[in-house]
Design a protein that fits this description.
By secondary structure, this protein is of the alpha+beta class. About 35% of the residues lie in helices and about 20% in strands. It has two domains: about 150 residues, no CATH class; about 90 residues, no CATH class. It has six helices and twelve strands. The longest helix has about 30 residues.
């Protein structure tokens, strides 16, 4: 089914792109070509979600965003909530390249920072600073110098926390999209996130003379995106393979496929 576990089936997207490409007389799209574009398409749609959040926030500020379940802002926040990660980071030899105990490396799947808290009983939230000149001013100030009750984090390639006595923090951030299992395998359930994989369609054996194949669902990975973005994913891949279609054509195709399930 298309919307199992609120995810986007890579097989369904491949079939849609293949059919739309044939209708546009561009020819057959092989799984190898499709896979080369799938992760890029997912990343493009994922970043567009942040643009949607900004637009929805504008509606809220102007007082025209509906309330409760109809809120556009709340809807995008719900979509993005699946990517929120909270992780404890240790400085020094455990986490940083510099060896300083107050310097922390960003996680490999890091995308956007939400907050940083000191990992102690008080869990004090650090002020985030993105400008080294501003940080230098804060450190040299007798009034605003960082303390245990007023920690400050300089965010650049790494995360540097002041005062320097802080050696462990709790970072909350948005992770990069990965992929989702397309089938249940042992303890892994369909829809579980494969944090080390990217969306891909796998096949049993080679393609036949007409380009047909049997999908290997166990080794395929679905898109790590909310199901309602299937139209956007199809559109992104179609653009990359050279298919020019109006938005309503792709949206209509997605709706039609959903109703046929």
């Amino acid at each position: 089914m298309l919307y199992i576990c609120d995810m986007i089936s890579v097989v369904e997207v491949y079939n849609a792109v293949r059919d739309l490409a044939n209708k546009d007389q561009k020819g057959f799209i092989s799984p190898k070509v499709f896979n080369s574009f799938a992760a890029i398409a997912q990343e493009n749609v994922y970043m567009e979600m942040y643009s949607e959040l900004t637009a929805a926030y504008s509606l809220r500020v102007r007082g025209v965003d509906p309330s409760q379940g109809e809120s556009a802002y709340r809807g995008v926040e719900d979509d993005l909530s699946r990517y929120i990660v909270e992780e404890v980071l240790s400085g020094g030899s455990d986490g940083s390249a510099s060896g300083d105990s107050n310097v922390f490396s960003k996680p490999e799947d890091f995308c956007k920072l939400i907050s940083i808290r000191v990992d102690d009983d008080d869990r004090v939230q650090a002020e985030l600073v993105y400008n080294s000149a501003k940080m230098a001013h804060i450190l040299n100030s007798k009034l605003s110098a960082p303390t245990d009750l007023f920690p400050v984090a300089l965010v650049s390639k790494n995360i540097e926390i002041f005062p320097t006595t802080v050696d462990s923090v709790i970072m909350t951030y948005y992770r990069q999209p990965a992929s989702a299992y397309a089938a249940s395998i042992g303890r892994v359930k369909i829809g579980d996130v494969d944090y080390d994989g990217k969306p891909r369609i796998a096949t049993f054996g080679a393609l036949d003379n007409e380009g047909f194949f049997v999908p290997d669902v166990a080794n395929s990975r679905n898109f790590d995106l909310p199901a309602r973005y299937i139209g956007e994913v199809i559109a992104e891949i179609c653009k990359m393979v050279g298919v020019r279609l109006r938005d309503q054509v792709i949206s209509g195709y997605a709706v039609q496929e959903t109703q046929n399930k």
